[in-house]
Amino acid sequence: MSFFDRVYEYVARVPRGKVVTYGQVAAAIGAPRCARQVGWALHVNPQPGIIPCHRVVNREGRLAPAFAFGGTDAQARLLEAEGVEVRDGFVDLEKYLWRE
């Protein structure tokens, strides 16, 4: 299975109303130093309606400034529709971080 496929498989499991970080995804798929590559994989997400890349934020809870499917406003709208509160471009990781 390719790196990108492992990213997509993991992110597809993140439940509605929760977020994960790029680094968390990288570590979970066995590539702990590849957070940037996780970001690139999500930037070229082939199935945005199925692979919920909007649920991935940076290590501080910041939304992606280059969210591939409409920018931070679109990412915020998608998260808020799932009950995730977004304040000033950030998600509270203490409250919304998904831990398997």
Describe this structure in words.
The protein is globular, with a radius of gyration of 12 Å. The mean pLDDT is 94. The chain has a two-stranded parallel sheet. The two termini are 21 Å apart. It has helices at residues 3-12, 22-28, 35-43, 71-81, 93-96, and strands spanning 20-21, 56-57, 86-87, 90-91. The protein has 100 residues and is mainly alpha-helical. α2 packs across α3 (35-43). Helices cover 41% and strands 8% of the residues.
Outline the biggest β-sheet.
2 strands, parallel
Residue windows where pLDDT falls under 50 for at least 5 positions: none
Query: Helical segment tally?
Result: 5
User: What structural category arises from helix and sheet content?
Assistant: mainly alpha
Order of helices and strands: HEHHEHEEH
The protein's oligomeric status is single chain
Share in β-strands: 5-15%
Note the overall shape: globular
End-to-end gap: 21 Å
Tell me the number of strands. 4
Major beta sheet, strand line-up: 1-2
Radius of gyration: 12 Å
Mean pLDDT: 94
Helix content: 40-55%
Main attributes?
4 strands; mainly alpha; two-stranded antiparallel sheet; 100 residues; 5 helices; 41% helix
